[in-house]
Amino acid sequence: MGCDVRHHKLTIHFFSFIIERERKEEAECNKHILLHYNIIPFILLYVYLIFLYFTTPFPIESATVGADNSTTTETVATTTKNDTTTTSSSSDEEKSVEWSEHDFYIFLIWITFGLHIVSELFKHWSVEYRCFVSLVPVASVSQADHVRVTPSSHVGAKTLCDIVHDVDQATSQDKSYFYFQKRKFTYDADKKQFVKIKLAVPTEVDDIIRIRGYDTQESLTNSIQRFGGNRFDIPIPAFLDLYKEQAMAPFFVFQVFCVLLWSLEEYVYYCLFTLFMLLTFEATVVKQRLRNLQSLRDMSSKPSYPIYVYRLNQWKQIDTTEILPGDVVSMVRGETEAKSVAPCDLLLLSGGVVVNEAMLTGESTPHHKESIAERSSKNPLDYKNDKIHIMYGGTTIVQHTPAEKTLKISKPPDKGCIAYALKTGFDTNQGRLMRTIWFSTERVTANNKESFLFIIFLLIFAIAASIYLFIRGIEDNQRSKYKLILHCIMVITSVVPPELPMELSLAVNNSLMSLVRLGIYCTEPFRIPLAGKVDVCCFDKTGTLTTDDLILQGIAFAPRDQPTTKKSTKQDEIDSDETSSSSSTATIVDPFSLIPAQDTSEVVGYLLAGCHSLVSIDGKLVGDPMETASLKSIPYTCKGDSSSHTKKKVVIEIINRYHFTSELKRMSTIANVIRDGGNKTGIYAFAKGAPEILKPMLKNVPTQYDDVYKKFSRQGSRVLALGYKEMDAVKHTNMLKATPREEVESGLEFGGFLIFDCPLKPDSKDAIERLASSAHQIVMITGDNSLTACHVAKQLAIMNPSNPTLILTKKENQGYTWVSVDETIEKPFQGVSPTHLLDLSQQHNLCVSGQTLDSILNNTIVEKYLYLVQVFARVSPEQKQLILANFKQYDHHTLMAGDGTNDVGALKQAHVGVAILNKGEMPPPRPMLGARDMIRQQQQQMQQIQQQQQGLTRQQQLAEMTKKLQEEMKEQEIQMVKLGDASIAAPFTSKSSRVIPVTHIIRQGRCTLVTTFQMYKILALNSLVSAYSLSVLYLDGVKLGDTQMTLGGMLIALCFLFISTSKPLEKLANKRPNPNLFSPYMMLSILLQFALHLACLIFIVREADIRTSDANRPKIDSTFEPNLVNSAVFLISNAMQVATFAVNYKGHPFMQSLRENRPLLYCLSAVWGLGAILSLEIMPDLNQYMELIPFPDDTFRNLMFGTIVVDLVGAFIIEKVCSTIFSS
Q1: Under DSSP, is residue 1042 helix (H, G, I), strand (E, B) or coil?
Q2: Pairing assessment for the beta strands 650-658 and 642-645 based on DSSP bridges
Q3: Which of 513, 536, 543, 512 has the alpha carbon at shortest distance from 525?
Q4: How far apart are CA 220 and CA 229, in angstroms?
Q5: What is the mean pLDDT of the chain?
Q6: Taking a C-beta distance cutoff of 8 angstroms, is the pair 513, 1053 a contact?
Q7: Contacts for 779 with CB less than 8 Å, ≥ 6 apart
Q8: What H or E segment, with its residue span, contains residue 329?
């Protein structure tokens, strides 16, 4: 009866309030609320209990009689000591023990009522439970009222969405849709599934060019109804509404339930303190959520402006919020930056633009966008990969070329370029980034599955203790059964610490704050603990490990100009024929020597000036640093598509570009070379790219072609091959633009090799050394040449400089072979040996190119050890994803660092993706200051300001000081991630161009991981001790006072607060933290420490019991009265809590030591010192205030203090021994 559909990572089920009585359609009706599964059973249970309350005698009345008899016997036995006291005690016990049938059934009714409330709350907590209880699955969408949506992990929770049934005005057919995370899903009757609403866009270029937008009012109206407006609507709920939602969370309800349980034990102050702490924390969470929503709303409220749109066969102006997918719009660079922002995702139909995509990718390098009309390929348009034609919403237009007249549409009035709206609102790339920030709200834990198993492990102990308590308690006829059941429940609830989510949130929030201070922004906080588990760190090379400021060393193997007066040789004549367009002859000099670019043949200068993608913006040349360096080396002035010689009358105009892509590894242009003021013209095809890619495109390949480029590549230089040819100048410009790329890039004359020096970033070597020395495998994944990449890898010590480097090569008729860099060593590729890569890596460095990568990825025998390959070269963006996927497949935790454009797929594939943006250097991070340090610093700054401004008036001095203090306070606040700070490419974004931020993320991740694990460990020990205290000690009547409980609660809260604020060490440890919560080390340490605490507790209780007279023994189920046993239990419990925190605080090598974490050290020292003072009775008045009675003798006093010391020292020894045993 259900429909389970998976589409776009969404699992969808249909539900309705309809229940079937018969199999006929007309017999179906709405399900009444009384028919919900959690209504009728509870009603029947209420009726049954009320019936028993009035009719059935109390089933355990004999127990009361037995209690009376035993009480009488006890009274007779103790009359000889004190008749008056015994009689009074007996009557009190009878009063507390006697439990009538009315009380018993009222108790059961209250229990049922509590379960009923929990059942109703579960409808808010669990979508599956609500569907089971209140809804019925149906076979037809037309019958459904709700749909259950299960998103992919980390992008929100399961949701029950309302289905809207409407009539499609265009087809007059019924349609059903729902909204999930601000996106609309409609039901496709043909596919029988819900699909994301999107525009049906043609893929053939001819069809796209004929697009005319909305030419009828009917189609326009239907689209308005279907797509809605182009806006980001983010509602801001009221504080109380959001607080109510927060208060309905399972853990908060559980926390309040625990407080109510303790209140029944008459712990008034303890319960008030705990409740105040919970309510305050939830209020701060709500305020933070409101601030985040407001920040997100401010980001989303992009300024609207009038824009021309082609509707109903004419151009008209509308507001940008009214744009619909399918509209044809005119895009121009506006008067202001706000009016130059693309309002949605657009496909360029005519004209051209240069855009800055920093708002999305974080990269500020402008990108060319060319119209679909200029597309040379006849292949269908791929909207995912053909990004050269798509302008994304939120990007800024820095330059535009007016549209030419198309087949169907007139030129726009504002002379803009014509574009076709693809996606609007939250469906755009900008909307996707905003949804990532908004809905990535998963609770942050170190490992959800392991956390659950850990709590199950503790629950086993709690259930055992609860069963023991119930069995022993039910045998005692003097014991209150109400109190017995209450304590059984308290034992079980003590295992799940109610403060757990609060403490985990504090730890992760502090990590987020620390990263923001370092210029690192995170949109998916759940990945911070994952950074602590990383064992394989992958880096892109160009722009990540090396700088973008390339230096042109010269041109190798290039023709060089010779004076025309020199007597020409036969070779000169041949070279002259090859470059007949030049005004001078050219000759090839030593191919291995580097020639300055200005000294080469003129045609090479034409090539450098006419084959680029640089843009002139406000008189400044911006674009690829490699092309900028090339143009600076020749005497040409570039103004976008036109370049002119500074000394000669030569102008080069680019007619058409075939842009560079990572897959093709080359670019080419068609350019018009105008000489002598227009008297001489020539049409040329220019190309440049990877040497091995351009080689098949050359007409004549020089004999030393491979030797030359390999030599410079081995030296670490970046090498580009140049090619050119003269084309038919008779062709019209439009014909030239329509020339296929394959024709342009064939039959080229060789123009030499451009040799660039790629300097390493100043901190690259330091960062790699830190990561390598901290138990990480370092891998370089680049699109650059294998030889260049291997040289850089050795410079950075990614490869061992003393070991030979082998590159996997595919040789004709020989298959795959490992060949050394100098080609002196060859080893066969053994695809049948599982340890082939492992054996090779012992004595060699390994490099695999994109051409040979499939030989390993498609071989299930050897691919397990792919992570031992240090360098992957000449790989495409898709292959980068496959490499990361392989690492993850074999249980490696991966980090990928790269730029925000070419490496998007790999950054998303990694567990921790870091987009390193070249936005300059971030200022050094400011350390977190304590209150005293802040006050001292502000006083010093005030004094400096006063000294600098002695000549100013009093009012000016006060205003300046106030401004400075406001700036200081603002720097201490943490704002939400902004769109310009976060990159759509990766969950982590570094605004610095340095590599060191990668180490900051790992340091913070390790600190957070260790912090969360030690929180679990401390809470586990406290829970186990609490389970024992609430069970076994309760049987002996032991309980603590209200003041004592409040002090213990404050201790735990403060210690956890100070643990969560621990900072990582500056130096990365040479080992990784234990990535598993459920590990032998963790279990053994917990069990042994618990055994020690238990032994100390039993010992001190036995010693106190020996010294306690019968008259002073704790009374069962009575109110708290200070006695020796209670006093001893409080002191030893307090000491055990201190020992648990002090011993299990990890500190070095991942975070601050206990000595360095001053607040935690002072807190634990103060509490332990207080315990010592109380145990030694140094201040009797303090003991009395803490509800402790005087100790009977010095022996017990010394035993108490000695037990506290033994517990602390013993726990310390156990932890150190376990750490040593499982150090690996």
Answers
A1: helix
A2: antiparallel
A3: 512
A4: 12
A5: 77
A6: no
A7: 536, 537, 538, 539, 798, 867, 869, 870, 871, 872, 883
A8: strand 328-331
DSSP E strand boundaries for 1138-1224: none
| Residues in contact with 918: Cβ distance below 8 Å, sequence separation at least 6, in sequence order | 363, 364, 365, 543, 548, 899, 993
Identified catalytic residue from 345, 540, 641, 1042: 540
Rounded to an integer, what distance in angstroms lies between the CA atom of residue 559 and that of residue 750? 9
Which tops the pLDDT comparison, 365 or 952?
365
Residue with token string 């072979």: 817
More confident residue, 1154 or 1041: 1154
Specify the DSSP element, H or E, that contains 352. Answer: strand 352-356
What residue has token string 């440049």? 688
pLDDT of residue 45: 83
> Vertex 879, ends 876 and 881: CA angle to 5°?
120
pLDDT(28) > 60: no
Structure tokens at 710: 């390999």
Helix (H, G, I), strand (E, B), or coil: what is residue 259? helix
Among residues 657, 631, 744, which one has the least CA distance to residue 694? Answer: 744
Cα–Cα distances (Å) from 750 to 454, 627, 682, in that order, read 67, 19, 18
Q: Which residue has the tokens 């006050």?
A: 935
With beta carbons less than 8 A apart as the criterion, state whether 352 and 404 touch: no
Contacts within 8 Å (CB) and 24+ apart, 1212-1218: 1212/1139, 1212/1142, 1212/1143, 1214/1085, 1214/1088, 1214/1089, 1214/1092, 1214/1143, 1215/1085, 1215/1089, 1215/1143, 1215/1144, 1218/1081, 1218/1084, 1218/1085, 1218/1088
- Cβ atoms of 692 and 753 within 8 Å: the answer is no
Q: Is 554 helix (H, G, I), strand (E, B) or coil?
A: strand
Q: What are the structure tokens assigned to 654, written together?
A: 């680019």
Answer yes or no: are the C-beta atoms of 685 and 649 closer than 8 Å.
no
User: Do the beta carbons of residue 208 and residue 386 sit within 8 Å?
Assistant: no
Rounded CA separation 958/280 (Å): 35
Query: At a CB cut-off of 8 Å and minimum separation 6, what does 1018 contact?
Result: 1056, 1059, 1140, 1141, 1144
Least confident range from 835-849, 871-885, 938-952, 1114-1128: namely 938-952
Residue matched to tokens 């089933």: 59
In this prediction, residue 982 has a pLDDT band, given cuts at 50, 70 and 90, of low
Q: Terminus-to-terminus CA distance in the chain, angstroms?
A: 53
Helix (H) or strand (E) holding 147: strand 146-150
Q: How many CA atoms lie within 13 A of 561 on its CB side?
A: 16
Query: Which phi and psi angles does 481 have, rounded to 5°?
Result: -70, -30
- What is the Cα–Cα distance from 1106 to 1094, expressed in whole angstroms? 18
Name 721's Cβ contacts closer than 8 Å, sequence gap at least 6. Answer: 688, 689, 690, 691, 693, 694, 695, 709, 750, 752, 753, 754
Q: Is 540 a catalytic residue?
A: yes
What is the Cα–Cα distance from 866 to 278, expressed in whole angstroms?
49
Question: Contact at 8 Å (CB) between 654 and 636?
Answer: no
pLDDT band at 392, cuts 50/70/90?
confident
Q: How confident is the model at residue 56 (pLDDT cuts 50, 70, 90)?
A: low
Strand residue runs (E) in 427-494: none
Range in 687-701, 730-744, 787-801 the model is least confident about:
730-744
Look at residue 567 in the predicted model and tell me its pLDDT: 37
The pLDDT of residue 96: 41
Q: What is the pTM of this model?
A: 0.73
Contact 1024, 1090 (CB under 8 A): yes
**What's the pLDDT score for residue 497?**
64
> Domains in the chain, please, with CATH?
1-24+32-56+98-198 (no CATH), 239-300 (no CATH), 306-431 (2.70.150.10), 449-519+1006-1222 (1.20.1110.10), 536-547+760-916 (3.40.50.1000), 551-562+589-757 (3.40.1110.10)
